[in-house]
Amino acid sequence: MISPGNGRPAEGSGQLIRIDHLVKTYLLGEVEVHALRGVSLQISQGEFVAIMGASGSGKSTFMNVLGCLDKPTKGTYRLDQIDVGQLTRDELARIRNRKIGFVFQGFNLLSRTTALENVELPLLYGSTSHRDRRWQAADALETVGLADRAHHYPSQLSGGQQQRVAIARALVNSPSIVLADEPTGNLDSRTSVEVMEVFQRLNDNGITIILVTHESDIAQFAKRQIVFRDGKVRADKANGSQKIASEAVREMPVIDDEGDE
Amino acid sequence: MRLTNTLLSAFRALRRNKMRSFLTMLGIIIGVSAVIAMLAIGQGAKYSVEQQISSLGTNVIVVLPGTQQTGGIRVAAGSATTLTADDALAIQKECPAVALVSPGTRAGGQVIAGSQNWSTGIEGTGADYLEIRKWKVEYGDFYTEQDIKTATKVCVLGKTVADNLFPDASPIDQTVRIRNVPFKVVGVLAKKGQNAMGQDQDDIILSPYTTVSRRLSWFTNLRQILVSATSSENIPIAQNQVAELLRMRHKIASYDADDFTIRNQADLATAATATTDILTILLASIASVSLLVGGIGIMNIMLVSVTERTREIGIRMSVGARSRDILTQFLIEALVLSLLGGTVGILLGVTGSRIISHVVKWPTIITAFSIVLSFGFSIGIGIFFGFYPARKAALLNPIEALRYE
Ligand SMILES: Nc1ncnc2c1ncn2[C@@H]1O[C@H](COP(=O)(O)OP(=O)(O)O)[C@@H](O)[C@H]1O
Ligand SMILES: [Mg+2]
Question: Where exactly are the structural domains of chain B?
């Protein structure tokens, strides 16, 4: 096993995530499925990590644990020095609400509510006042370049736009981490790069980004690349040649798919 | 999550499935309107009972033989035959607060007039009976004090009896055979209608109590003495005077209980309204069964809704909704369903009761109590039957809910 977080500062206030010997075993009837077989790694504030690996290598399982959506079978997960394993359901909900923004491959928007209301959703479960909610959500939509689509329903938006709404929702509570599980999996290549541009912009603003992808093209936009295989970390290295998405977009041919439904 | 938002999203969710929400509410609508209507009918019955009891005649006191059963509404057993005609006379003579007295006895049997026959009750009375009961003779006359003294075989027919025995002719001066004893008909009573218990008060024959006890009955003691007080304020005084007189006449020692029972109209009203109260409770209970069924309908739909919206629940949890946020969301939805249903049900119940009043001529009374009760019931049903589905939603595992297809 390759030692975790090599070459990166492991101590101090910069350390955001610390995972030790994480194991996740699913029980399918009589059969045990070992999704994670002992993962240890550390991620610091402000990193942009791409997690890669073949399908079934445990990436999503890992992300769900990071996102406090699922609990590991064994091992510890410390977020901001807090042992997440000791927290109650409500405390986990609070962490999901305040510290983490999650972006899914399938967008997971509420279909009968507008883009703006979807973005507002996390604020409903916090202590934000009604007035603040509106402009914070509008702000987040602005950040992802969708201010003019605020009152559209998901079905009236393209895939890329829907994913940007989902990103805005992940951002709206100013989380310290954004987790994205194959956010570009359902998008064409140009739209994917545009979404990466958004992530890079967020990362420039100090938000930690952890993103799962099985496309190495997409992983090129991250600062650090971790490869999973059979539920273990196979490789973990800094990306010496990080590509800048905003530049990459300019070099790509324009495909007529957005902004004109 | 704020209540207004929760309410808003509840309305939205219900609007999404208009037909389904309506059908679910229909259960509550029917239940609540049935409860309202049944309570209205019951209250109406109670009201008409009270009306009819006061139409029994004002200031009436009834003296019955035998001991009163404590707490019971049952009139004492007739086996204790302690009241005599002399008692009645003494009451008339010696009680200053008493205005009129009518000794009473009773028999029943087959009555024949020509080819017609009819089974009815025969009430033996004094000459003042009609005045005490505020009743009138429509045709002919009532029998006199003289008839009573000599135990003449005369009778006065109730309207129903007259109509059945003499469908085409006037019964006056005709002869009817009561249990084979010939009686001359001297009069026909004015129609009085049904009493509180739905009995036909006109299905009766009145005759001098002396005649009835000698010719139609096997004992000479009285079944009752009907007394009217000089005024309604004097009712308690009259009651006391009658009681004292009878205790003295019956030689009852001071430590012994009365061998008679005195009831006034208020007692009778209490007894009768107790019966209608039971009727009301019965009707309302039957109606609330449909409310219960409506509640089960809500539970059913909420369970379906939770299953359908598992993914939505997962999404909400993934952005930080706590169990209790999800619980309130679904509970509020169930409450909105039941409260909307309840409100419509109340309106429908009130209108329905009005229509019943109008069409069937049965009095109905809507009380604030029955509306508050129905409203409370709706809330209770919403919470009770909404809780299980809401809890089921709240306890979902976020990741499993998100993965749900
Ligand atoms: N809920 C589950 N129940 C049983 N097995 C599961 C479940 N989720 C994932 N797995 C299994 O765990 C392994 C890792 O899955 P996953 O983390 O989704 O991989 P990846 O996202 O890298 O494709 C796979 O073998 C998968 O079949
Ligand atoms: Mg996956």
Answer: 2-52+271-403, 102-227
